TrEMBL record, chain A:
Residues 138-258 form the FUZ/MON1/HPS1 first Longin domain. It holds the Pfam family Fuz_longin_2. GO terms for cellular component: fungal-type vacuole membrane; Mon1-Ccz1 complex; multivesicular body membrane. Belongs to the MON1/SAND family. Keywords: Autophagy, Endosome, Membrane, Protein transport, Transport, Vacuole. Transmembrane segments: none annotated. One of its GO terms (biological process) is protein targeting to vacuole. The lineage of its organism: Eukaryota, Fungi, Dikarya, Ascomycota, Saccharomycotina. This is Vacuolar fusion protein MON1. InterPro entries: FUZ/MON1/HPS1_longin_1, FUZ/MON1/HPS1_longin_2, FUZ/MON1/HPS1_longin_3, Mon1. Required for multiple vacuole delivery pathways including the cytoplasm to vacuole transport (Cvt), autophagy, pexophagy and endocytosis. The keyword Acetylation does not apply. The keyword Transport applies. It is found in: Endosome, Multivesicular body membrane; Prevacuolar compartment membrane; Vacuole membrane.
Automatic annotation (TrEMBL), chain B:
Its main location: membrane. Residues 182-207 are annotated as: Disordered. One of its GO terms (biological process) is vesicle organization. It comes from the Eukaryota. One of its GO terms (molecular function) is GTPase activity. It is found in: Cell membrane. InterPro entries: P-loop_NTPase (IPR027417), Small_GTP-bd (IPR005225), Small_GTPase (IPR001806). Keywords: Cell membrane, GTP-binding, Lipoprotein, Membrane, Nucleotide-binding, Prenylation, Protein transport, Transport. Signal peptide: none annotated. This is LAMI_0H14444g1_1. It holds the Pfam family Ras. It comes from Lachancea mirantina. Belongs to the small GTPase superfamily. Rab family. CDD domains: Rab5_related.
Length: 646, 207
């Protein structure tokens, strides 16, 4: 795994008239620009070649309309690409690079290799210890402006206090010298580490946040992650209260003010950023539950009707601000909103993590009334959220039984149950059934006295949902997601499709791939298997690996500020490793070749990771095209369009 | 069926939510997350001494944390009963409970408000893992002095929990009976609703 090649090739995708196609090859290199990110060429033992061809102005771009209007013109896009040999502009010491690139461009022609479903992990895991010492390939610190520790992802605050002191000193040094420190990267090779560590700082007085990553994440991505962490602090206590706490005493110890549950939630957030497949932050979009168009429309109409038909004495006008139906894992189903207002995705991510991570033990017959500050909506005030889980059809949770005799002591949390997707039909023991993940109804009001109005509204909505059988549709949709097989994208392991207009993304379920991954790696990793066959450890590894591919793929297609290089870009990333020697079982594995694609246009973003061994770029582009047209065809199923507007 | 509103108050992590869950679900969770804001639950019981009387408690389980204190008045304002909870292993929590009792006495105009002082976590003292920081007699005499009901309970083992709600239910029912009798003498109407009509529909969605 040490020999890591990373080749990048950015390309322009445009609609071209058929007659122009033949001329493309020569136009290709007009303004090619070679960019060699320094962090990628540092490894003495790992020759890494990275090229980026910025072909922004090579083609004439038909003006404003989206890149293509229908699926068939998407095909033109892809067809317009021709593989060609590349020359490099003079004046750059890139002769070696050129050769490298040339060779890799022709690696398509090499002997056919086996294409497998598995997704190998080509990344170094040298630092992957989380033994509490604070050493890891990912770390978050939060400290106060005065340098007091507030939160650390790994390790005890007492143990990392010294490190935090250093961070504080370094940041203040740069502040004194008049510049602000945003990011710094360590050189490779120090203390036996072969990967560079990147430190990113976010100064949000009275808090100072720092992220460390040895996963080659970009500064922009890490800054996004820090901003989300900061947003949690604001959401839980509002910026006003936060600054007031520190206004009295600069050396205020925020830890004494936070609840244990706050730390749990912060750990949850860090964990979901670092170890799970939650590309929300990476692509800056929301996830939706795929639903039939008619079902989604019925949900919208129903919520709207209940709001408009409500008795104004029970539900005063203007009491409700937003109404949301959300499926487990924060997948939006339906939204009810005032005209001209939408909630920021960060605010919704925070809300969803509150509902589905914080309230894991929430029971369907419980109703919550929770003050939440939505940082992007209004960072100095609170809104009040009525939260209720939607019962599954067939739920029989002894609601009215008075003190049953059986004493059951359940002490485990629902975290494992929530991550599984149980089949809809299989009857389950009561305890298990009660822990199956449930959709939630969230009604947001600006009035702290609004609980009973929201409760009435929620009850009416719920009764209507049940009467129209919509709860059943909702849960059937959740229990039976689209399978990858229904998406005509052979050779693709996983993808993320973001519709920019909706600010929402779709990613296929991973269950099947997780199985494959765990089979593949069970021989090499010491995973502690759980009884359901999928070891948590390997699933986590799969998610981590996939996220790491995605963040690389994305980083290769966007500038440091997170904006795409061009209005329209296709960028390839290929990871290769040398053939390995026989493993412990005596099997010799072939070389690993993983191809990733980012395709960014003004209307969508597509990121995909191919199966190991897939090298035919045209086939990959064909799959990419298929995914895009599939997603466009199913747009009304995959995304919430406007919601119900009142 | 009579409906009464009940609110739980007390310092953070004294076990308010655990008591409610023992009462409503008869279950206990060692690792309960702390409450944010407030949770609303309901539970119906039959009075032991009056078997044909059913009482539905609508329960506000509030967050004990200081930062949510400003929200508390909206939860206790229309309450018929308040459970003020302290932790028998934490002397501080009784002081906090006293301040809640004072607040209730001064802010709630309803003279019929039933306040019950509840010492939780007695199981910790019984199995010897924690010393008892609040003696039963001390708390009991404080409760008697201020006209509070008093109980020691364990949400973990369940001991004493249902007795709390039984006693509150009986007391509220006795009050209700008097006022019902009084009002039926004055007017010939039977008003089962209390001061504030409940917005909670008896045919709840999740039954």
């Amino acid at each position: 795994m040490d020999f890591l090649k990373n080749q990048r090739l950015g390309m322009r995708s445009v609609s071209l008239a058929g007659s122009m196609r033949d001329g493309i090859q020569n136009d290709y290199l007009d303004r090619a620009r070679v960019r060699v990110p320094s962090e990628l060429v540092r490894a003495p033992r790992a020759p890494v070649a990275t090229t980026s061809l910025d072909l922004a102005d090579t083609f004439s771009q038909p003006a404003a309309p989206p890149i293509f209007d229908d699926a068939s013109s998407a095909a033109d896009d892809v067809l317009s690409y021709r593989s060609s040999s590349l020359g490099l502009p003079g004046g750059m010491s890139a002769a070696g690079l050129s050769a490298e690139l040339h060779q890799s461009m022709h690696s398509d022609n090499a002997a056919p290799r086996d294409v497998t479903h598995e997704l190998p992990d080509v990344f170094e895991r040298a630092l992957g210890t989380t033994d509490g010492s604070g050493a890891s390939d990912k770390q978050f610190f939060v400290l106060s402006a005065a340098g007091k520790p507030v939160f650390t992802m790994h390790g005890q605050e007492e143990l990392v206090m010294g490190l935090m002191g250093i961070v504080h000193t370094v940041v203040n040094y740069f502040r004194i010298s008049g510049s602000s420190l945003n990011s710094l990267v360590t050189s490779m090779g120090s203390s036996g580490q072969s990967t560079a560590q990147r430190f990113v700082f976010l100064d949000r007085p009275p808090l100072l946040l720092m992220a460390m990553s040895a996963r080659e994440e970009s500064q922009h991505d890490l800054a996004q992650q820090l901003d989300f962490l900061y947003s949690y602090f604001v959401s839980s206590m509002s910026r006003k209260q936060l600054s007031r706490l520190f206004a009295r005493r600069e050396n205020f110890d925020l830890r004494s003010f936070l609840m244990p549950a706050d730390f749990d939630t912060l750990h949850h957030i860090c964990d979901s950023i670092a170890n799970s497949l939650r590309p929300e932050l990476l692509v800056g979009a929301l996830r939706c539950l795929p639903l039939r168009k008619s079902v989604r429309q019925s949900l919208h109409t129903l919520m709207l009707r209940q709001l408009q038909d409500a008795d104004p004495t029970d539900v005063p006008k203007g009491c409700l601000l937003y109404g949301l139906i959300v499926a487990p894992g924060g997948q939006l189903c339906s939204v009810l909103r005032p005209k001209g207002h939408t909630l920021h995705t960060t605010d919704l991510h925070l809300l969803f993590s509150l509902v589905f991570d914080r309230f894991q033990n929430l029971q369907p017959d419980q109703e919550l009334w929770v003050p939440v500050c939505f940082p992007k909506f209004n960072s100095s005030g609170f809104l009040h959220c009525y939260i209720k889980l939607l019962p599954r059809p067939g739920d029989d949770l002894g609601h009215a039984t008075a003190l049953p005799d059986i004493v059951s002591v359940g002490s485990h949390t629902a975290s494992t149950a929530a991550s599984r997707q149980p089949s809809f039909d299989v009857p389950m023991p009561n305890e298990e059934a009660a822990k199956r993940p449930r959709c939630a109804l969230v009604l947001i009001s600006a009035q702290k006295e609004g609980f009973f109005a929201m409760k009435t509204l929620a009850q009416n909505m719920l009764a209507d949902l049940e009467a129209r059988n919509l709860l059943k549709y909702l849960y059937v949709s959740w229990d039976t997601p689209f399978s990858m097989a229904s998406i005509p994208a052979p050779l693709v392991n996983h993808f993320i499709y973001k519709s920019k207009r909706h600010v929402q993304y779709y990613a296929p379920p991973t269950t099947a791939w997780v199985n494959q991954f765990s089979n593949d790696s069970s021989s090499s990793t010491n995973a502690d298997s759980t009884h359901d066959g999928i070891s948590v450890n390997t699933k986590e590894n799969y998610y981590k690996t996939l996220m790491r591919y995605y963040s690389h793929i994305r980083a290769n297609a966007v500038a440091e500020d997170g904006k795409p290089f061009n209005r329209s870009t296709i960028s390839f990333v290929r990871w290769t490793t040398e053939p390995q020697t026989a493993d412990t079982n005596g099997f010799v594995h072939g070389p690993t070749i993983v191809t990733g694609v980012a395709w960014l246009t003004s209307s969508f973003e597509l990121y995909l990771v191919c199966n190991n061994g897939e090298t035919d770029r045209n086939a990959v582009l064909g799959s990419a095209k298929n995914i895009v047209s599939w997603c466009r065809r199913n747009e009304s199923r995959l995304f919430v369009h406007d919601g119900a507007v009142f | 069926m009579l409906q009464f509103k009940l609110v739980l108050l007390g310092d953070s992590s004294v076990g308010k939510s655990s008591i409610v869950h023992r009462f409503v679900k008869d279950s206990f969770d060692e690792f309960r997350e702390s409450t944010i804001g407030a949770a609303f639950l309901s539970q119906t019981i039959k009075l032991e001494n009056e078997p044909d009387v059913t009482i539905k408690f609508e329960i506000w389980d509030t967050a004990g944390q200081e930062r949510y204190k400003s929200l508390a008045p909206m939860y206790y304002r229309n309450a018929n009963a308040a459970l003020v909870v302290y932790d028998v292993t934490q002397a501080d929590s009784l002081a906090k409970a006293r301040s809640w009792v004072e607040e209730l006495k001064s802010k709630v105009s309803d003279k019929d408000l039933v306040i019950c002082l509840v010492g939780n976590k007695v199981d910790l003292c019984e199995d010897g893992s924690e010393p008892k920081a609040v003696e039963k007699e001390d708390a009991e005499s404080y409760a008697a002095e201020h006209g509070l009901l008093f109980h020691e309970v364990s949400a973990k083992s369940g001991s004493g929990v249902s007795a709390v709600f039984q006693q509150i239910g009986s007391k509220l029912y006795a009050q209700k009976k008097d006022s019902l009798a009084a009002s039926s003498q004055q007017r010939n109407t039977v008003n089962v609703e209390l001061q504030r009509p409940s917005t909670n529909d008896a045919t709840s969605c999740c039954s």
